[in-house]
User: What shape does this take?
Amino acid sequence: MKLTLKVLSVMMALSIVLAGCGPAATPEPEPAEPTVETSGVAAPTSVPPISAPARSDLTTRLMADISGIDPCNTTNVNDHYVAVNVYSGLVNFKPGTGDVVPDLAETWEVSPDGLLWTFHLREGVQFHKGYGEVNAEAVKYSIDRVLNPGGDKKCENASYIAAVESVEVVDEYTVQIKLKYPYAALGTSLAYRAGWIVPQRAVEELGDGFGLNPVGTGPFIFDSWTPDDEVVLVANEDYYGEPAKIKRVTFKVIPDETVASLALENGELDIAILRAAETYEQLKANPNLVVDATPGTSVRVLAMNTASPPFDDVHVRQAVAHAINKDEIVEIALAGTVARTDNVFGPTTFGYTSDVRIYEYNPDKAKQLLAEAGYPDGFEVTLYFSTLSPWPDIVPILKANLDAVGIKVTLEGMEHAAYNAFARNNEYQLIVQPLGRPPDPDLPLSVAYHSDLIPPAGNNLSRYDKIDDLIEAGRKEVDPEKRKAIYVQLQQQMAEDVPVVPIGFQMVIVAMQPQVKGYAAGISNEFWLYPLYFEE
Amino acid sequence: MLSQILRRLFIGFLTVLGVVTLVFLLVRVMPGDPAEVMLGDYATEESLAALRHQLGLDKPLYSQYADFVLGLARGDLGCSTRSRRLVLDEIRRVLPYTIQLTGAGVLLSILIGLPLGIFGAYRRHSIVDYASMTLAVAGYSAPAFWLAILLLLLFSIRLQWFPILGGGDQGDWLSLARHAALPALALGLRQAGLVARTTRSSMLEVLAQDYMRTARAKGLGESAVLGRHALKNAAIPIVTVVGLSFGTLLGGAVATEIVFTRPGMGRLLVDAILARDYPIIQGSVLVWALIFIAINLIVDLTYTFLEPRLRAG
Assistant: This one.
């Protein structure tokens, strides 16, 4: 008995030690964490049984937890999947395409010099949760906030609308955006992230917590978030269009692809975005599921350092392009989850052309080019890659292909965050690079091929500096035909210079139960819930 | 006895301080930082610098460390760089799931492993002994995540008995049990092998002792011989293994929580590492260390209960 008491006293002592880290439980008011006070998200919400007969609730998947849904700094795909359903901008993408269509703005016109865009707002559109009506002031506030939210805080998405000089309120429902230079991609940029409209009062009330309690005007209202577990949206019954047919959407956080596919086969998920080649094949073979694959805008390339030997010699880069068997990569290693491309754009991007120089798979020609460049016996090089799927499936084939022509490759894989840090801060000759951007050519080009963004300043990993003029010309050209011609020329020049070997563009793959109808793919990582419904 | 506990607590305190310091340094040596992850693939140097400043990551290391330790002293683990929530709240939310899972796993490992081990020792070299030891080795050799997938395929896809996703609702015991059943089995089956093997060898040793013959000679029934005399004397190694099981299973919970998409300490930590969420990594490792130290202390105290000779010392 004495002993039991002693054990108890130890337990109590321990609980005091544990409670010693406890004072934060009743936090002193600290500006950094208003979330704790204001959010109603901590309580796990019970999900109604998913096999109920009348279906208006849908369960889907996130690949990782959200980190914050805010037009200012939403940068990752999982945040984006949720955000496009909660927010709307002046314009939006038509689901399934990259076409820019009216949303909060019913119409707009552009001045002849391309510098002044006038938007006419839809009247009577209400923010979620009683935050009032959307007017020109709200538009000005939202865009100003992204461009310059004050002090040293910087909005990550400001780069999308860097062309914007100022936003002027003309009247309650008319707003003008003045540009520093004509910017053809403005529509796409406003539809993507930086142009989502937020209510000033909610942003000010919630502070840093706004991203986890987002308030928008979209067809769905952000209901709750349980970290690492689920995000729940409910239909916005006051949506300016028809309210969504799905009334409640639960995004379950399921990092593991195999588990997600099991949950689909089991019926616990109604629809899910997938990435891995194995699950794609497995689910395609399941007659009880529908699998959709649509070309996306994200392109995967092998980048070569054009600033130093041996890849400063275009013959060497061309040799690499001839050495790589893209068909083997996309069809065998990736099972069609990525589609072959000879271009740095996907076919859904404006200005795409297939009329570029093609480097067919030809190891003999690769060896010959290497010999001409002065490397008859090849050379040794390290290929750096991110271990994020699908790179681990791609790089062994790259290595085998390059080894076969005499380029001895050592593979060096890194976890994705480490890879990003490495890519910006180190010297290397060969590195893989994903490029996922909205469907306007300027956005991928500006971040990955302009000489202003050669590391460490940014992500021009091939350190390519030959198309700055074309990038800037294309950015400023407002006439669609002339603009297209610029991009065709640019793509052709890139195919000659081969700063990167484009491998394939990612397919947007979604598997769903056959009762789920209305699906339209989001080609730049949107996940459109609005068109979905269950068949009776 | 009390001084012994106090000494252990002091050593435990030093251990925790060492662990958190090591983790503090390790996360900062890791390539990539929270700003890199939060800003994604196309961040510019300029925006990275701005965010690092905002997060206080541009301060010198000693000053960051001082902030961290002073915070700890006040019981403040800071707030997550990713979710902006208090680290302590995040841990408090997921800790019950991990404790329930680990507890259920340990319980299962005892319920399965102990009878197998006792029976194996009692009927040594019988078919049952060989079969149970083969199972034990197989169980212990199977990785938890692999076992987890097999269990999912059988019980959730084929038989549809258990749900695949989530951890259940805290407070609803049926829901918690249904969600914990398969992951606990995946963890418990593995550990049951170890418990069975340890029990068997420890029991064999005890069964060979003279006092076992004496017990039988004075006419005690077999169950009393095995239970009261043999098992109690064989218990110390078993308790050690079970205690260590908690540690192993906490580690195994990382993989299991990910496969079963359960909330928990393992997933919190792995997600935090991928997101370079320094405060969460530091906080969870701290809690992890405290749990380990507590378990070791409890195991040691159990020894003194089982073996009076140790109380003196």
